[in-house]
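Appendix B. Raw example, untouched.
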Amino acid sequence: MERIPEPELMIDLAQAKAYSEADFESRHSKIIKLIDRSFNTADISGDILDLGCGPGDVTFRLARRFLSADITAIDGSPAMISQAQARLLREQTFTNRMVFIEALIPGLAIPNKPYQLIVSTSFLHHLHQPEVLWQTVIKYSTPGTKVFIADLCRPASKRAARQMVRQHASGEPDVLQQDFYHSLLAAFTAEEVEKQLLAAGLSNLTVELDDYLLIYGEI
């Protein structure tokens, strides 16, 4: 099945609110475990960059996992950043360690820091030009920066995509089910990602299929 791109930004407030209120406990707690596994439970005590953070659920989990790290989280959707900032006001424990910034990539709003870890979850498939993610990873990394990207992997057919929605999201609101379906159609295959990495000069990163399409390694 050919890739069917979807809109790059989720700008609808109701859509952002639905994501903010959805139960991602199982999926996002697994992301943290996969980061630990990928880097042998490395101690991340420096700066973390979260690209395409959405309403911030993974960002907050990173903050709880890496208690000495400061996190810069980026999203291009004003609605998503609004949800993330509202949560930060409620959970003030993280106020001094976390900042949410509305910004597109590539862009000038991202602070230029020596990031120890660059993370992106379910963001790559939104991009019409996926190379901008890899360009951003290169721009904001230094030798030794750890990179962890988790995304969907495009199924073989629309029928298979509908089956995945029924299997993984049948209890979610309709807006989330529809978004999940369209995101599956917009996702890349492992082979496509490997070609992207080769073109970007990042072929040293590992590409792996789990429940997610994983891309990880050190710069």
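End of appendix B.
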